[in-house]
Amino acid sequence: MILFRVLFLVFVTVALAATTVEPVVAQNILDSRLDTPIGTPENPLDVGIGIRIDQITSVDQKAENYGAVVVLRVEWTDPALAFDRQELGRDIRVFNPPALADHAAEIGTVVPAFVIHNQQSNKWIHESAASLRYDGRVLYVEKSSLTLQAPHFDFRKYPFDTQEFHFEVVSIFPSQYVSYHPINEFSGLGDLLGEEEWILDNARLETSQVTGLSGQDSDQVALIFEGHRHLTYYVIRVFLPMLVLISVGWALFFLDEYRKRIEIAGGNLLVFVAFNWAISADLPKLGYLTFLDFVLQCMFLMTGALIVFNVALRRLKVSGRESGARKLDNYAVKWIYPLGYAAIVGYAVFAYLLVP
């Protein structure tokens, strides 16, 4: 009888111990997922990056940069940050970003810090917040304004050029510790960018690896979009006046007085100089000619040649060879001047716009 009572007490004790341990295991069920901590070469932290540009505040071609108002979204899941929602009384905790970083530092886990790779100015953060879900899922959102480098500008086809704009987010940690993937559904360009000079489209996210701050390969997510110019402005302000000047130069051949021709052609030459200065003011000091530079320089040379040609005709007339001068004049009116400009424009289109 005593033996039976001893066995019964042992059984009850074991049963009570089992029922006591069971809830503890249930409350810490995420602990089993921490056997291999994230942010390690064996289990890198997977981070989603979304980039949306709401405004383009400026495009500075000479400095090769642009200003933007950007909404950045960063998402990741870290079980080390999980909490008991029943104990807290809600599913989500909201942090100021520095407070979240402090909280993660206390736990000893990884916060996926990043830099804007092509940032040129201070980043003015308008609003930022971070939310932490009970299972360790973190969402960080910030809206900021900054100036970004645009080193991919190429003006060879100006003003028919298409330029690439980049917004590059690079992880501070090497790729073996933190990896990036794009959040395409959140990213892109806003509907009201506020940019009148450029037509911006074809936005896309691209992932790559670059040399990070650590000197090792780090993941990068870049929002890339393209811009081309409103050509109506250049047609009205540049090409139409150029066509008028070319027509005036051709009309000079119908004047019999060579001295008047020289005076008008000299005025045209000054206009081309002013054109060249006005256009070059919008672009950096390039080491190559653009499409518009080539056309303008050829027009400048043609106008200079026109002055020299009329001076030669004047000399022929004064020396008594007026019939020869008129033949040369007639030949220039019908063939040299129009075909010369056609050849210039045709070569410019082929060399600058058609050839990659």
Automatic annotation (TrEMBL):
The chain crosses the membrane at residues 234-255, 262-279, 291-313, 334-355. Residues 35-203 form the Neurotransmitter-gated ion-channel ligand-binding domain. Keywords: Membrane, Signal, Transmembrane, Transmembrane helix. The keyword Endoplasmic reticulum does not apply. The keyword Nucleus does not apply. InterPro entries: Neur_chan_lig-bd, Neur_chan_lig-bd_sf, Neur_channel, Neuro-gated_channel_TM_sf, Neuro_actylchol_rec. Residues 1-17 form the signal peptide. GO terms for molecular function: extracellular ligand-gated monoatomic ion channel activity; transmembrane signaling receptor activity. It is found in: Membrane. Pfam families: Neur_chan_LBD. Its main location: membrane. One of its GO terms (cellular component) is membrane. It is a multi-pass membrane protein. This is Ligand-gated ion channel. It comes from Ruegeria atlantica.
